Amino acid sequence: MVENKKKPNPIDIHVGSRIRLRRTMLGMSQEKLGESLGITFQQIQKYEKGTNRVGASRLQNISNILTVPVSFFFEDAPGDNIVDANGMAEASNSNYVVDFLSSSEGLQLNRAFVKIGDPKVRRRIVELVKTLGAEGDAD
Questions:
Q1: Which parts form a coiled-coil structure per UniProt (predicted)?
Q2: Closest CA to 10 of 61, 60, 51, 70
Q3: Beta bridge partners of 13
Q4: Concatenated DSSP letters for 2-18?
Q5: DSSP string covering 37-78
């Protein structure tokens, strides 16, 4: 017997990954988010994987709990096109940001960086990282 399992919609997967990204950036567990919404952590897992679609009112509640606008969950969504000054559409490809912030190192770096209040120090750190990255390219 052939199982007819429908694949999750790419937008649902994207929205779920953005929920996970923001939740982990805040250091919030799936259990805590579920409690805040009155649902189980298993339901949060299904949302984050994109296997269950998040309804509009639930997404609004999630955005309030995670302190981001609803639009945050759709940034860089599949099929999202940016039109440049010449009228040419260019697909936005910043999955590397999600991948970076989903990694342990990326999350640690981001949390530490946002705690730095001095803009000059932040700029110097960015320059340092750029320099170190360029040195890695030279190898």
A1: none
A2: 51
A3: none
A4: ---PPPPPHHHHHHHHH
A5: HTS-HHHHHHHHHTSSPPPHHHHHHHHHHTTS-GGGGGTT-T
73 token code pair:
């969950």
Domains and CATH numbers, the chain: 1-94 (1.10.260.40), 103-139 (no CATH)
Q: Which two tokens stand for residue 15?
A: 């929205």
What the block records as the tokens of 64 is: 């309030």
Q: Which one has a higher pLDDT value, 71 or 133? A: 71
Q: Report the DSSP beta bridge partners of residue 89.
A: 83
pLDDT of residue 116: 84
Q: What is the DSSP letter of 83?
A: E
Pull the structure tokens for residue 39.
Answer: 């649902």
For 57-106, how does the pLDDT look when each residue is reduced to its tens digit (9 = 90+)?
A: 999 999 999 999 999 999 888 875 544 444 444 444 456 666 777 677 88
Q: In 3-state terms, what secondary structure has residue 52?
A: coil
Q: What pTM was estimated for this model as a whole?
A: 0.64
Task: Give the rounded distance of the alpha carbon of 17 from its chain centre.
Answer: 6
What SS3 class is residue 71?
helix
